[in-house]
Each structure stands twice: as structure tokens, then as C-alpha cells.
């Protein structure tokens, strides 16, 4: 698989200001580099009280820059050189004092100086606040954060939870993997900004009795990847997930369901409030007519129990038949074992949707890569084999290009 890593060719200046969360920045360097980025660490004097430049140098493979008076820079202008090379400056942790400096446009230390010296239009500044909850909630901090945002800074988090001081609340720096994903999302085009997307994912489980049921091998990975890609593209995303063990992508609202009828009941009232509906779930077509309340027991006769099956509601077809004013723009998935394009086109017509995404079913269940064929009225478009997240981003691009808003 040749998909380049998410931060391929990105040069990130990672700034550390003083705070106990500096310990997370060591892991953050690793995460950014694993994602393909080059990382230049810059530390304030206060940051060096919490973690040593030696650690950050060893992890980043570059000498840490600490002072604007560092004579190693031939032109002695570290603030200019660093901010001209960077694709983004990420300050993590950003202390209350550092955010105050940014809000005031101060330049007492190299890190605040280079933030001030950065070309606003091409070098974004991302701040990951980290401080005690009272400091975060203080009106002065909130004022400074609002000013920094008004001047173009992007604020990531903070998270809530246990704090080093023993208190609990808002102000924790996001974890290294969360900051990595925020940065990756930041570099994605905002193709669905202002749009809302409803997605179904995973299998459904149709109970036979309290311990048994009918389900399938869908892992939910493709649907979760589409949810992440849509959120990265700026959409408000609701994900209705069958029983899967996958982490919820950042900024995605997740609703867990078990059966097809629960999925149907979660989707139908929400569909009119969304612009786009993407049905990736492998919904069980049939369910036992009545699930036993007690476990079915062997009766000693050697004959298996007989139970009747009834058809589940077709969620996609139902949404696609909503009145035009309530109907989101619908995308179906077709998992087929053969004649992919023919079956996908037949589904396009039968379900009455503008786009069906075909994939070769059993071959892709649970795998991390996939191949998709997009079938619509205009023809077929193949998205070549790639990781499911890369494919999901391609699919989001194709959806954004085709999407037409419903009549007002
Ligand atoms: N789908 C749905 N509700 C169902 C069945 C399917 O929303 N009860 C959606 C799936 O999420 C997918 C699309 O319909 O987007 C195609 O589903 P699939 O099961 O492949 O097609 P079927 O209509 O069941 O046809 P067949 O089983 O003959 O392939």
C-alpha cells in the first residue's frame, strides 16, 4: 500500500511553554514523526524546568532551539528562519502566561517572538492549552484565548479530567494522539464545512434468544473511516454504530445500537436534520420473528429448533423515500461477491439514491484497505486500493463534488 503518511512532508515547529503537561510533549514528538512530519522543537525557559531539551532533541533528532540569542543561526534570526520553514506552529503545552503573551503580541522569548513573526496567511498557529481548571476558567484567560483566536490562532481542546494538582475539570492538555489527529485534520480540505452527515456503520445483531443471534463479519472500519473523514472535512457528523469495538473518531457524535430496528429508529428521526446520509452498515436483512425470552434448550430429540424469520426495514430505502424537504442526499454501499458494477447499479435504481459505492464484500471485511467503485447516473468511478481512511477521504471529496442541497 503506497498511501503516504498523514503528515508526509509537513514541517512542524513544536513549541513548549512551561507546564507539567510537557511530559506529554515527548510522546507528541513521536506521534507527529510517526505520522510523517519533521519536528523542530522550540522551548521556553519555563518549559526546560519540566522536561529537558536533551529528551526533546533525542526524540526529534534535531537540536532544540531555546533562545533568540542562539549564535548558531548564521543570520542570528532564529525567529524568522523557524517561522518561514514551518507548515504550522503547534504550541503544546500552551500555558496561561504564554496565551497571554500571544494575546498581547509580546515577544520576550523566542517562542512568542516567532509566533509574532510568522507570516499570518501561510503559517497557522495552533495552541493546546494546559493549566489548572481555575486558571482556564479565569476571565483573564478566557479573554486572552478569545483575543488569540480573533487574531487567527486555533485552539485545540483543552480536555477535561484529572489534573496534576489533584483537581478535576477543564484545562488538561489533549493527549498526544488526539493532538496528532487534530493536526492531521487541520491539513485536510474543509470540503463539507457547514454540512451535516449521518452515517450508519458496522453489522447489526438480531437476537434469537438472550444469548444467541444473527450477525455478520462487518467490522465497521469503513463507516468509522467515513465518519472521521467527514469530520475532518468540517462536517457535523452523527454516527449510528452497530456492535463494534472501535474508538469514536474525534468530534463525531456516536449512537450505539444493536439490531436493525434500533438502527432504523435511531436514523429516521435524525435524517431530516442532516444534509447527507451515508449507509455503510451491513444491516441484517432478516431477524427471528420473535426472540425467545429464555435460552433455547436442546430437547434431546436431536432436532434443531425451528424459528421463523421476518424481513428487517430497509433503512436506506426508507430514508431515500422521505419527502424531498426532509430527505438528505443519500449514499448507499453495496458489498458484493461478484458482478460488482452490475449489482451496484441495480441497487442505485432499486433504492432510489444518487450514489452507490460498491466494494467486493467478504474480501474487505475487517481489513484495513479496500477498493471502491462509485456508481451514479453519470457512470463509474474507481477509487484504487488504499487504506480505508485514505479511501474515505477520497469518497468524501467525491460526495462533496456531487452533493446537491435539498430544496429549501
Ligand atoms: N441497507 C439498509 N437497511 C437494510 C439493508 C441494507 O440501510 N435493511 C443499506 C446498506 O447499509 C447499504 C445498502 O443498503 O448501504 C445495500 O445493502 P445490501 O445489503 O448490500 O443490499 P440489499 O438491498 O440487502 O441486497 P442484496 O442482499 O440482494 O445484496
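-> sequence recovered:
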Amino acid at each position: 500500500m503506497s498511501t503516504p503518511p498523514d503528515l508526509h512532508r509537513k514541517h512542524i515547529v513544536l513549541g513548549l511553554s512551561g507546564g507539567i503537561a510537557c511530559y506529554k510533549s515527548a510522546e507528541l514528538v513521536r506521534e507527529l514523526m510517526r505520522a510523517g512530519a519533521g519536528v523542530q522543537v522550540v522551548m521556553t525557559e519555563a518549559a526546560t524546568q519540566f522536561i529537558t531539551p536533551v529528551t526533546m532533541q533525542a526524540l526529534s533528532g534535531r537540536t532544540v532551539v531555546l533562545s533568540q540569542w542562539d549564535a548558531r543561526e548564521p543570520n542570528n534570526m532564529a525567529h524568522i528562519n523557524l517561522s518561514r520553514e514551518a507548515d504550522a506552529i503547534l504550541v503544546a503545552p500552551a500555558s496561561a502566561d504564554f496565551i497571554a503573551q500571544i494575546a498581547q503580541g509580546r515577544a520576550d522569548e523566542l517562542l512568542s517572538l516567532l509566533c509574532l513573526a510568522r507570516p499570518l496567511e501561510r503559517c497557522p498557529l495552533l495552541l493546546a492549552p494546559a493549566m489548572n481548571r481555575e486558571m482556564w476558567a479565569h476571565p483573564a484567560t478566557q479573554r486572552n484565548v478569545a483575543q488569540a483566536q480573533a487574531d487567527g490562532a486555533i485552539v485545540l481542546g483543552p480536555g477535561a479530567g484529572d489534573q496534576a494538582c489533584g483537581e478535576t475539570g477543564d484545562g488538561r492538555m489533549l493527549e498526544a494522539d488526539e493532538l496528532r489527529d487534530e493536526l492531521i485534520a487541520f491539513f485536510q480540505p474543509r470540503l463539507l464545512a457547514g454540512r451535516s452527515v449521518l452515517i450508519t456503520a458496522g453489522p447489526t445483531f438480531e437476537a434469537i434468544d438472550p444469548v444467541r443471534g444473527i450477525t455478520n463479519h462487518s467490522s465497521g472500519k469503513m463507516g468509522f473511516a467515513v465518519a472521521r473523514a467527514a469530520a475532518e472535512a468540517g462536517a457535523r457528523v452523527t454516527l449510528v454504530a452497530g456492535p463494534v469495538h472501535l474508538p469514536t473518531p474525534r468530534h463525531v457524535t456516536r449512537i450505539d445500537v444493536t439490531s436493525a430496528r434500533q438502527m432504523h429508529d435511531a436514523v429516521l428521526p435524525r435524517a431530516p436534520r442532516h444534509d447527507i446520509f451515508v449507509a455503510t452498515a451491513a444491516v441484517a436483512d432478516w431477524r427471528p420473528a420473535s426472540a425467545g425470552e429464555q435460552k433455547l434448550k436442546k430437547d434431546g430429540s436431536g432436532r434443531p429448533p425451528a424459528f421463523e424469520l421476518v424481513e428487517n426495514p430497509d433503512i436506506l430505502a426508507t430514508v431515500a423515500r422521505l419527502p424531498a424537504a426532509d430527505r438528505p442526499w443519500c449514499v448507499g454501499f453495496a458489498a458484493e461477491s461478484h458482478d460488482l458494477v452490475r449489482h451496484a447499479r441495480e441497487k442505485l435504481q432499486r433504492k432510489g439514491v444518487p450514489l452507490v459505492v460498491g466494494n467486493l464484500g467478504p474480501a474487505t471485511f475487517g481489513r484495513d484497505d479496500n477498493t471502491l467503485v462509485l456508481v451514479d447516473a453519470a457512470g463509474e468511478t474507481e477509487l484504487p486500493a488504499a487504506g480505508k481512511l485514505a479511501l474515505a477521504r477520497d469518497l468524501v471529496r467525491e460526495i462533496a463534488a456531487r452533493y446537491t442541497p435539498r430544496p429549501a
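The longest strand covers residues 379-387.
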